[in-house]
Design brief:
The protein has 745 residues and is an alpha+beta fold. 18% of the residues lie in helices and 39% in strands.
Amino acid sequence: MNQVLTRPYAIIVAALLAWSTAVDADETHSDPAAADRPRIGLVLGGGGARGAAHIGVLRELERMRIPIDAIAGASMGAFFGGLYASGSSPAELEQIVASTEWAEGLSDEPNRGDLRLRRKQDEQHYPINPDLGLHRGELKLPLGVVQGQKLDLILRELTVDASHINDFDKLPIPFRAIAANIETGERHVLGQGDLATAIRASMSVPGVLAPVSVDDGLLVDGGIVGNLPIDVMREMDVDIIIAVNVEFPLYAMEDLGSAIAISEQMLTILIRRETVRQIASLGEGDVLIEPQLGNYGSANFADILTTIEPGAVAVRDAESHLQALAVDESAYAAWLERRKTRPRIDGKLAFVRVEQDSGLATEVIKARLRVEAGDPIDIQQLSAEAARLHGVNVFEKVNYRLVEENGETGVIFDARAKSWGPNFLRFGLSLEDDFEGATTFDLRARLIRPAVNRYGGEWTADLRLGTEPQLFSEFYQPFRFDQRFFVAPYIDLNQSNVNLFANHEIIARLRLTELTGGIDLGVEFGNIGELRLGAFRGGGESHVIVGDPSIPNPDFETGGLRARMRFDTLNTAWFPRRGLRADVEWRASRPDFGADESYDTINVEFQQFASRGKSTFGFGIDFATTLSFEGALQDLFRLGGFQRLSGFENGVLSGPHAAVAKLDFYRRIGTSAGGLFEVPMYLGASLEAGNVWQTRSDMSLDSALIHGSLYLGMNTYIGPVIIGAGLGQNGYSNFYLLIGAPPQR
């Protein structure tokens, strides 16, 4: 079995239990037959993925017709216990587990369709997002690696029909969740409030999942103070206790071969000590159930369904002790019916409100909502609206709650600003090596200051170090609360390398240094695109770094007008399965704006993807041309490199006219890890045709060069990692190792 992250703290993944049938709750239903039998309490312990054994336990208890009168749970036990107490059946719980995408659930990254274009560009060029804050020169970290945005929405959907119940004794089965106050170290028993919040608090692994604020305290995983809360159950006025322990066992001596194993053993000992004390308090009539899960890893959610049956087997092994607790069929049928009574949340929304504490005007947030008063109450839509608001990327979490006022039901969206701001850092890196000494490398950082003012003004500053360094800054200022129209002044200082050609031969390589300032007026098209119109002014210098030093090193002046339209509907930034990305720019250099010459450039980049099964097909075209004047060094276009005529090294071709078209195919062949830490792997190939031309009269299909590539790629947390080979006509070939997201061209 997988033993990585095997401790109960690996219950981080309990956060992922997914989008499925919502549970319901109702007021406590009195059970006349209960007076004639002992009251039975069920205690469900924590254990990460091992906790799915509770489903098998519940299934067998129902088969044996053993009614449960109270439930207490910690961590994963609180998850299954809370859902069962509010009306979910074992079959429904199993469906929840089976339908969960674990890696997706334990993530705060919004769905890409909920991101504005600016945030999509962050993701594309700065994929390393440690969620670092910066305040007065000091780096700040969030309270957890994961804030629980998606987890909270999952729990909200699953418990929505119990949202009107604030006293957990009024659930179909009275329930308690166990958490720990991280400030005092004391146990916190949750028996009232919001059920989804209580479950979430009990599952908040310290340092991994952010704590939950309840009653002015910060609550974390209950497993650290009582992973098997038998004493809590005794306080719920029960006669018989059935306790289910799914903790990870202690390692044997031969398994203690690393510092990680020793640390895990220490943690297990600390948790286990309290569990042993709790087990020792069980009486003669009580029953302890310990499913035989061996060394099954607490974080091994890839095979989680295999833990259900050991839970069922453990109950069957104890059947002789449990049989005395069974009731007859009619009594159990009546108990089941009362437990399954589920009031549905329906009707229409009487009001829609937003409560938020960012620097943004509430009108900015409401402008992104598509739900309004009078709409039917649709839980999935409300979750989608909360996810869309989270895509603004100003809030650490956005949740919603249904509330009743004057007999009417409305929704309030709670949006909490990131507490570790107000400035945030993202990073990117790029390494391209052809195994023959030609290496390009850059390290990038982006500083973002969002919500500068009520309209959503935003300042960004980019620093790129390496082969082609850059310093860039822009201030984005919307004009209206809907943020559709904006102005964006910017300044850009960069260096780049270009090759000079004579008679189709490289005669020199020049280093260009350019400083440009400009201002754009723009309009956004929802989350998918934008159009900018602007003016720019700049200048630069060049010098020969390879070739004849007598070649002139001209200075140059730039200035003019530009228009740029961008669209991005890709479902992921790298190795997408569907969607398109397009970038079309026209630049008009004019002496009236300070340019040396009058000419126009047009640059078009387009990609389209579609998938079938595990296979994805892509088509792309890059086209660039210069009109009227062909001698501007700063506006030469470059080709060469992976999927830009792959047989050539990066940027080896340059000229005032360039074009390349490509067909791309890749197929997902597996992952480099399973469960939570999934890194998809792809095998792909491309076919490319294109060239660079020094004059417009040279451009023709006959002069296009045919190249292609074969590659193995992974979509990692630092961007794409690709190893491949490029082949081209006339014997050109190249090998590639690409790590990280390439810089913006």
